[in-house]
Amino acid sequence: xxxxRRLILAGALAASSIETLGCAMTASTSTRPxxxxxxxxxxxxxxxxxxxxxxxxxxEGFTWSEGPVWIQDGGYLLFSDVPENRIHRWSETDGASVxxxxxxxxxPPTPDFREPGSNGLIAGPAGSILMADHGNxxxxxxxxxxxxxTLLATxxxxxxxxxxxxxxxxxxxxxxFTDPPYGLKDMDQSPLKEQAHNGVYxxxxxxxxxxxxxxxxxxxxxxxSPDQRTxxxxxxxxxxxxxxxxxxxxxxxxxNGRVLKDFTALVGDQNPGLPDGLAIDAxxxxxxxxxxxxxxxxxxxxxLGRIDTGTAAANCKFGDDGHTLFITSGAMLVRLKxxxxx
Length: 342
Prior knowledge:
342 residues; mainly beta; Neuraminidase; 1 helix; 43% strand
């Protein structure tokens, strides 16, 4: 079956393994199943997440859910299932369904990829999303109406990227993205790996690609502070599970790299997960996935608490009314109503 034919069919077909749960209710009166708990480490968390708030399960049956993005013009959420090479759509009225398949690699069967699908997704120009495309080893743009994909960047200095993982766009139009080897079979040992490093890059509007950071082992989630003067990068390395902060100048160059938070001591079976995706609220608080769930940090790295979903959380993003945090957590999609705004 051709890639275009598969894309057309994917918009109409739902994966049989997906189960959408419950009906629409507020967090305080929800009839949806709830999971996990809110762990409060500082009284200041009460200003961000109300006492009594619950984590609602919206859908389940995924292999590894990732990259949630809220589509305001349409009122729905898109998110990736990276190993299954799909993007799913979820809305309050329609539940979960397959939006795009394949989402990443669309060539003949190959054993070369560990995770062939799309990963991080963000809103793009009107009617589109931007994606970190594991399977095509690219940063891409997808038209939401036609599912047509345009590859925006595939190489640095003539060499293929590893497998772009997550991305964020600045108000200047520049796209910052991470490029660990997670999409490749055998990762750093893959014969397909062309880059000597697992880098963090900037893609400018004219197509120029600049390597910003080359000394992280497994850079993963990436985000910008509200004033766009700080770039945050999460490192998914169990021996150095950290969140880095970098000063960002007007030209998009980074300096003064420093560890904002070190989660290494928490890594273990009792706290599933590693630093991965992250979201920033309007006041600059970080909601960053890590060992034991979503950690809520002040801009200077102080821990306020944790959203423990009970499984390893991959990513989170604000959407809907701006006060709703959507979390991709392993096999599940969940949400939490907050007092703060993304």
